[in-house]
Amino acid sequence: MNHKVNLSAEELKDVPEGKRFLCHDGRQLKNLLDLAAALRDMTDETFRAHVDQSKNDFANWVRDVVSDEGLSKALRETNNRDELSERLASRISQLKGESVLGDVVEAFEWFPGLRPPGWPFR
């Protein structure tokens, strides 16, 4: 059985300097963790400069720069900051979990003698 696993959590890595999100309040966001932190403490004015009934700059950045179409869609479905934060936090948790599993898979690649019986990944 040959399974290919791609669990590197690329979405959590820093984006290139020229693609960072520039907030209305002047801060630059380089990854999803920065976005989560910014959403917690930005002013309503800053949030509304980026999200309203007709636009969602955060969802656009997640789609176009971070390349996470699913998260972008989830963020676009709301213009409520708390809901947006919850959806982002959920995705980050999911990505962190995948990253840990990816590390385990990689370790077993390097040390095949340690693989449990029936280990499905190759």
Question: What's the layout of helices and strands?
Answer:
Layout: E1 21-22, E2 28-29, H1 32-41, H2 44-50, H3 57-66, H4 69-76, H5 81-110
Antiparallel strand pairs: 1-2
Characterization of this structure:
- It is built from five helices and two strands.
- The chain has helices at residues 32-41, 44-50, 57-66, 69-76, 81-110; strands spanning 21-22, 28-29.
- The chain has 122 residues and is mainly alpha-helical.
- It has a domain at 17-90.
- The protein starts with 20 loop residues before the first strand and ends in a 12-residue tail after the last helix.
Structure characteristics:
elongated; mainly alpha
* Radius of gyration over C-alpha positions, nearest whole angstrom: 18 Å
Mass-distribution shape: elongated
Total helical elements: 5
Structural class: mainly alpha
Oligomer: single chain
Helix content: 40-55%
- Would you identify the regions where 5 or more consecutive residues have pLDDT less than 50? 1-8
Give the terminus-to-terminus CA distance. 8 Å
Strand content: under 5%
Record the strand order, biggest sheet. 1-2
> How many extended strands?
2
The profile of the biggest β sheet is: 2 strands, antiparallel
Mean pLDDT, all residues: 83
H/E element sequence: EEHHHHH
